[in-house]
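Protocol step 4 of 5: obtain the predicted structure for the target chain.
Materials: sequence only (see below). No template structures provided, no constraints applied. The aim of this step is simply to have a reference model before the mutagenesis design in step 5. Sequence pasted as it appears in the construct record:
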Amino acid sequence: MLRDFRKPVVLAAPKIGLKHPKAVSNIDELAEGTKFEPILVKDFGTGSTDTVFFCSGKIGFDIEDRLTKADLKRGAKLIRIEELAPFPVSEIREALRSVDAKNHIYVQEESVNQGAFQWAKLHLDRMLADQGKAQMNYVGKESMHSYCAGSGTEYKSQVKKLWNDFNAWL
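Step 4 output (C-alpha cells):
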C-alpha cells in the first residue's frame, strides 16, 4: 500500500543506545526539511588524515572518546555507518574523496563472524579498490562459535585485546 507520508523505522537495539549521553539529537535535527544521515563523519587530530576508522553501532561512542583523548600526531577520521542496507556507498565515497589515508580500519565489538563487518567489508573493499586505496583492516574479536565468551574473565581479556589492537593504529 502506498501512502503520502513516511513512517519511521523501529529498530531493536541495545538499551545503551537509548541511555548513552551522546545518543541524542538536537531538536533542529528533527525539523521539517531534515533527513536521516546514513553515515556520521568526524575528524580528529591535526594534519592530513592518515587513518580512517569505520564502525557501526554503540562502539562509535567509545572510539570517539578514545580519539578525542588521544594525542594524535596526525589526522584520523571516524565514519560511523548508521544505515547498513542499502549500504551508503555514495556517502562514504564522498567522505573519502579528499582523504589520502594509508590505513582503513573497521572496528567492532562482535567477533569477526558476527556483527556488521562481513557485510560492510563486501562494499568497502570494492569501493576502496575502485579508488586505488589500501585494503581495509579489522579490529575486533576473533571468530567465535557463540556470541559471548561464557566467562567474565575471558570477556575482559577479549575487550582488552580489542582496545590494544585499536591503540596500535593510533
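Step 4 remarks: The chain has a mean pLDDT of 89. The first helix runs from residue 16 to 19.
Proceed to step 5.
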